[in-house]
Amino acid sequence: MKRILLIDGHPDPDPGRFIHALAQAYADGATIAGHEVRRLDLATMDIPFLRTRSDWTDAAPPPAIADAQADIHWAEHLVILYPLWLGDMPALLKAFLEQVARPGFALEQGTVPKPLLGGRSARLVVTMGMPAFFYRFFYGAHSVKSFERNILKLVGIKPVSSSLIGNVEGDEADRTSWLAEMRELGSAAA
After folding, report:
1. Which listed residue, 26, 65, 124, 156, has the most CB atoms within 10 A of its CB?
2. pTM of the model
3. Which of left, alpha, beta for 30 (phi over 0: left; psi -120 to 50: alpha)?
4. Which of 161, 144, 3, 151 lies closest to 72, judged by CA?
């Protein structure tokens, strides 16, 4: 059994957002399979933006961020769900990642940064209005690849898998199928 941390990165707390349903489906599948699950809903957290390097290197993390760091430290597998906005993650998720990935927690500073979050795996679940194959092949899924390589693997989190979910405002049958797939992924802690 694995310790799983779900990070729901949709900035809108409206329960009607499909990301929230996907996160719940994954959590349900994981819980039924006996995995331990914790959840962070960024839309309900106080996440200030970092404005200076000294804020990042010298200031103590705000309480919500310190709690999130404890949950990340606890987890063996991270599931990060977010909508694709302007070809990338929403600003709130980026602010969260900047806050959590402080020196001494995610990286040991030096000429070559040393990753401190090894031993964890991750899955990225990204929703979008366009067809996922179009984002993957025409745009090269550049933001997802960058997130995987330049953030997660940089701090030692690997392997990283991804689920790209397109046409989220389309067919109800497609949404039902994606919810079933999330429950299966949760059950397998994948």
Report:
1. 26
2. 0.96
3. alpha
4. 3
